Amino acid sequence: QVQLVESGGGLVQAGGSLRLSCTASGSIFSINSMGWYRRAPGKQRELVGTITSGGITNYADSVKGRFTVSRDNAKNMVYLQMNSLKPEDTAVYYCNLAAVYTGVAWGQGTQVTVTS
After folding, report:
1. Which residues contact 65 (CB under 8 A, 6 or more apart)?
2. Is the CB of residue 45 less than 8 Å from the CB of residue 38?
3. 2-45 pLDDT, tens per residue?
4. How far apart are CA 97 and CA 27, in angstroms?
5. What is the spatial distance between Cα 14 and Cα 35, in angstroms, rounded to a whole number?
6. What is the pLDDT of residues 94-112, one digit of tens each?
7. Burial (CB count within 10 angstroms: exposed 0-12, middle 13-18, buried 19+), residue 63
8. Phi, psi (rounded to 5 degrees) for 101
9. CA-to-CA distance for 91 and 47, rounded, in angstroms?
10. What pLDDT sits at residue 69?
11. What is the 3-state secondary structure (H, E, C) of the chain?
12. Cα separation of 14 and 83, whole Å?
């Protein structure tokens, strides 16, 4: 089975930047997509951004132009570069992976807190 481990979360002032990383390990077959979701206090988990095996990205409207998802296929890693952070970006960010046979896997999450 696949294991996902996130890193890079923390506390940052509004307007600042953070870079999240996620490493996949274990029995990985063909990866269809990897990406990021988040859950803010009192809200359901929502899409942040994903990237397919072919490099096609999909972003939530709220982060377009500010966040960038990228991946390193050789290392089975996905990244989330977050710029111009806003207090409303405060959430637990989860790494996500979808692969053949593996199905859908989730990391345990990393906290991102943005202060005014």
Report:
1. none
2. yes
3. 899 999 999 999 999 999 999 999 887 788 899 999 999 999 99
4. 12
5. 23
6. 999 998 887 899 999 999 9
7. buried
8. 70, -40
9. 12
10. 98
11. CEEEEEECCEEEECCCCEEEEEEEEECCCCEEEEEEEEECCCCCCEEEEEEECCCCEEECCCCCCCEEEEEEHHHCEEEEEECCCCHHHCEEEEEEEEECCCEEEECCCEEEEEEC
12. 9
The stretches of the chain forming alpha helices (DSSP H) are: none
Task: Map tokens 């979360």 to a residue.
Answer: 9
pLDDT at 21: 98
The CA–CA distances, whole Å, from 28 to 32, 98, 112 equal 11, 10, 28
CA pair distance 14, 16, nearest whole angstrom = 5
In the numeric block, which tokens belong to residue 24? 């996949």
pLDDT digits (tens, 9 = 90+) for 53-70: 899 999 999 999 999 999
